[in-house]
């Protein structure tokens, strides 16, 4: 599988957690990439505002050679990428996906959505609004493959259980890439469309029971003078050790 470019359309807390995991997994000094090319070699982030773009440039400045940060350039990001991750807020989806040029930019590509509450059909409807039968046939040939996934808040600890909706249109190669991507932030579980929402609810609610006290622990660490990032690193290591010993 040749290395590909991944575009993030929106990159908040969840998008940043996913990107951090992918960057660590594809570093040149990573033993997993020493014997074969990484599945993803370049990353593009497009944000709605310049302020968010500046924040992300600072956050990922150590990987500036592999991470390009844009703002208000959705079509350019989609055109350049092989794989597109829709990580924006759901209420922005229609505005973004109906921009002129999006249909052509996404033609035949692999689109992964982590937007809550939107099915692949609803996303496709945003890209290809209802049209005549003849137009539908022409559009069908160039439609992207759209799959939705639901990671949970434990992604920042690389302990997410990501629920992925099964899709008949998903090729073996793309399924392999999709699974690998989300394995960089935890485990992956495929469920049928009829179980996707329920599975996401169970996984999300289970982690919420843990992350609420975790946030309190991190807040307390900051009060005591420990940086939040350092406290999170320590907690992550303790959890990893506990997982090994159970």
TrEMBL record:
Keywords, in A-Z order: NADP
UniProt entry tagged with the keyword Iron: no
Record Gene3D superfamilies: NAD(P)-binding Rossmann-like Domain (3.40.50.720)
Boundaries of every Pyrroline-5-carboxylate reductase catalytic N-terminal domain copy: 6-117
Chain segments annotated as transmembrane: none
Keyword Chaperone in annotation: no
GO BP terms in the entry: L-proline biosynthetic process
Residues reported in the UniProt entry to bind NADPH: 74
Residue sites binding NADP(+) per the record: 9-14, 87-90
GO MF terms held by the record: pyrroline-5-carboxylate reductase activity
UniProt-listed PANTHER family: HYPOTHETICAL PYRROLINE-5-CARBOXYLATE REDUCTASE (EUROFUNG), PYRROLINE-5-CARBOXYLATE REDUCTASE
Family: Belongs to the pyrroline-5-carboxylate reductase family.
Protein name as it appears in the record: Delta 1-pyrroline-5-carboxylate reductase
Organism in which the protein naturally occurs: Aspergillus nanangensis
Lineage of the organism: Eukaryota, Fungi, Dikarya, Ascomycota, Pezizomycotina
Gene of this entry: PRO3_2
């Amino acid at each position: 599988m040749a290395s590909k470019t991944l575009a993030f359309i929106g990159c908040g807390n969840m998008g940043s957690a996913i990107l951090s995991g992918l960057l660590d997994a594809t570093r040149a000094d990573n033993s997993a990439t020493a014997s074969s090319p990484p599945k993803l070699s370049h990353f593009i982030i497009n944000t709605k505002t310049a302020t968010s773009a500046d924040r992300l440039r600072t956050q990922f400045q150590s990987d500036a050679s592999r991470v390009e940060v844009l703002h208000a350039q959705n079509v350019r990001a989609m055109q350049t990428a092989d794989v597109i991750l829709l990580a924006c807020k759901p209420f922005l989806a229609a505005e973004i996906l109906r921009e002129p040029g999006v249909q052509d930019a996404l033609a035949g590509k692999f689109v992964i959505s982590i937007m809550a509450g939107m099915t692949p059909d609803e996303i496709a409807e945003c890209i290809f609004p209802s049209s005549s039968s003849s137009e539908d046939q022409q559009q069908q040939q160039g439609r992207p493959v759209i799959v939705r996934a639901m990671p949970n808040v434990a992604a920042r600890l690389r302990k997410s259980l990501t629920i992925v909706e099964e899709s008949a249109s998903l090729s073996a190669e793309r399924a392999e890439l999709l699974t690998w991507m989300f394995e960089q932030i935890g485990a992956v579980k495929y469920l049928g469309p009829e179980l996707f929402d329920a599975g996401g609810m169970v996984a999300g609610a289970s982690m919420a029971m843990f992350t609420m006290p975790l946030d309190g622990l991190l807040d307390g660490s900051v009060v005591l003078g420990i940086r939040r990032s350092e406290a999170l690193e320590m907690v992550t290591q303790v959890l990893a050790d506990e997982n090994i010993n159970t």
